[in-house]
Q: What sequence folds into this?
């Protein structure tokens, strides 16, 4: 949202911040992220933008309420948590050790490894065995970095998040649900500190 004009409107008792992008699209798109709305509107449209927002009042209110409730809960849960402050080279070294360990353990081979800024994910694995990891892993504790690497290497065996996939995950991380909850807390902390 850098260099975008931010507007505000009320959705019932909640304030909504939003910005508008006019693009060559056919339909209006609503993208709500971190309590802020990105409204993508067809260039040819000259209607009042706030009308589009208020057409989705119920949905926006529900999502904003969920966001603020989660925000409050995560703020409490993360009070005693700290972000790791490792460099990218330190992260890459750590990841290479985890990859070496888990390639042997899972009997798989990574084709290519890359790092990117990723908004919604910690990592991804393609059918070509290419692994992409978020640069934000550098802020996570070692055990969560290990878990994410294992998770992505497991996708070399099973691309989907199905029962077979979670059977493999559970062998190394029987408490993986707790790790997933911890990752939500770290997403909150990272976003809060941006």
A:
């Amino acid at each position: 949202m850098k260099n975008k004009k931010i507007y505000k409107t009320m959705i019932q008792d909640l304030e909504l911040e939003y910005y508008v992008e006019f693009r060559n699209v056919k339909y209006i798109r609503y993208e709500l992220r971190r309590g802020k709305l990105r409204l993508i509107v067809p260039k040819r449209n000259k209607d009042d933008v706030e009308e589009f927002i208020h057409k989705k009042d119920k949905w926006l209110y529900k999502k904003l309420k969920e966001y603020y409730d989660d925000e409050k809960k995560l703020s409490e849960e993360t009070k005693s948590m700290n972000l790791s402050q490792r460099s990218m080279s330190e992260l890459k070294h750590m990841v290479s050790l985890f990859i070496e360990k888990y390639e042997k353990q899972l009997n798989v081979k990574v084709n290519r490894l890359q790092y990117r800024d990723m908004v919604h994910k910690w990592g991804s694995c393609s059918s070509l065995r290419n692994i992409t990891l978020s640069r934000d892993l550098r802020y996570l504790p070692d055990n969560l970095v290990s878990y994410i690497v294992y998770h992505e290497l497991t996708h070399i065996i099973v691309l989907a998040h199905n029962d077979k996939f979670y059977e493999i995950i559970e062998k190394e991380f029987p408490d993986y649900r707790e790790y997933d909850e911890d990752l939500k807390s770290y997403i909150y902390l990272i976003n809060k500190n941006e």
